[in-house]
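Checklist before submission:
- one chain only
- standard amino acids only
- sequence pasted in full

Submission:
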Amino acid sequence: MDSTPDPDKKGQATDGSTPNAAGTGAKDGSDRPVTSAAALAALGIVYGDLGTSPLYTFQTIAGAAGGHASAADALGLLSLIVWSLIAVVSIKYCYFVMRADNHGEGGILALMALVTGSAAGHSGRGLPFLVLAGLFGAALLYGDGIITPAISVLSALEGINVVTDVFKPYVLPLALAILLALFAAQAWGSARIGRVFGPVMLLWFVVIGVLGLTGVVRRPEVLLAIDPRHAAGFLLAHRLNSFVVLGGVFLALTGAEALYADMGHIGRAPIRVSWFVVVLPALLLCYAGQTALMLENPGIAGNPFFQLPPAWAVVPLVVLATLATIIASQAIITGAFSLTRQAMQLGWFPGLGIRQTSDEAYGQIYVPAVNWTMMVCTLALAFGFGSSDALSGAYGTAVSTTMLLTTALLYNAMRDMWKWPVAAALPLCALFLLIDLAFFGANLLKIRDGGYIPLLTGGLVLVVMTTWHRGVSAMRSSLTKRTQTPEWFLDTIRTAGIARVPGTAVFLSSSAWAIPPVMVRHVAQFKALQKTAVSLTVTFEEYPRVWHERRADVERLGDDLWHVTLHFGFIERPNVVAALAVAQAKGCKLNLDDVVYFASHDEVVRSETRPRLAGWRRMLFAAMYRNAVRSPDRFDLPADKFVDIGRQVAV
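Returned file contents:
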């Protein structure tokens, strides 16, 4: 259906609130009150990836620094992590990026929809770049999503090697079994498991914080790392080699995008409170404790995280770490599901089958095609790389690129939405950009070690997105000549003696045309038209939800002929039958108990006159269109009251 936003509806939230200067709705979900339940939910849903980064980050950067760091280098490494967490997560994301919410919803696609709508109102300045930045940033998250479960679960299970090497041959098979079970369980939904996510992650943060504190107590000089001069000194001393180290430091930041992406589920305030009260202190203590261990034993080998606890506590810690990494992986997978639905609603992804796994939580969905594709890729990566240390080379390139693109979109939000002057927006975004570019450049050094994998994945997803969007646009252009004006259509019916038979027909249109080609073809084939005929257009707006009273627009064309436009937000599940009840209440004379729904079953063929798509794009688009989910499934239409009318569309 049509995904073109209606400029007259721009700025309407579900509850009717409008954006303020900060880009937030007066009553949107981002400003939910902070409760213990909301803060606990944030720990379970938002902070899995960030929270489990201590499992592999320090091991990676210590190896990148040479493996035998001096006291000065150890403090420099810790200072880099501390100030990266403060600058990127605390300041950039928690304070600034999370202000740019799309009526309570976050994520780079929501930000793209927000700033492109604003840019469109300002002569379209930089609009193509903003769209491309948002799309590529979103596509890269799929690349991150196939690596995070593999590296997280492997790093947790490898902790058992600190106690004994007996289980070393079984770490990879066990990791593969856990990952397989995790993806297989998605079809059941995560609603029940989700109830324990928060408490488990709270226990995790308490444990890693206490473990880190024991190290700090033994070597309190690690607290000196709060001085940023230690970080600067390390970078200056190691020069070009410091870029290799920065690639490892960045592992401590992976998951920062989740703060923004999950804002619509949790709310801005609970996410911030959980970060500053629980997550940040626990992470800083844990990294400080691992640094203290390096100061005590400069030649330490293996993962310092699992050397923090006494020997008797390693096995319980491995079990807890495995649970935490499963939670982190679950968040990544469900995030990919939500991202897919957003892309579909905004018109950048073909229709895929989506199952709602909970009748209480809207965000609990299951997308089989995405799930099984991610599963195959994740298992292949885990098997191919074999260890978390090897996988760290493939990790980070996608997220660092997404963070860079988020900064570009944030600048436009500051200028076009918040109305900041250049003197305020430019220096701040330049600082963020400098940090992002440093991490981006550092991660580019990992290309040969596997960093190409998430970039290649993101590139392939971007090709799919742009091909789908161009293909749909080409189809609409091809079908334009088959439309008729309401006056011409009604006159044709009268002069040709077309019978008006009893019943109600609803014709689904892929555009805003009042008389769509499927209605014209129906009359031409059957030489009849139902007594009540409705041309139906479904639009997905560039804001998350639509106010109930604005759900339907009704236009009477004459002789019991109606044009109805239904509006859905880009995260809403479109239930057409329920929405038509709103149109009925607004005066559309249709009988919902006696409706037959008609839609076109299109076959994409090559245009003999002027092809609108390159040959490879046309074949890819045709394959996606042929396998896209049909209207009855996407719009919750009763299958026994649905009729497809075949046609060929040349593009």
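Reviewer check: DSSP finds 24 helices and eight strands in the chain.
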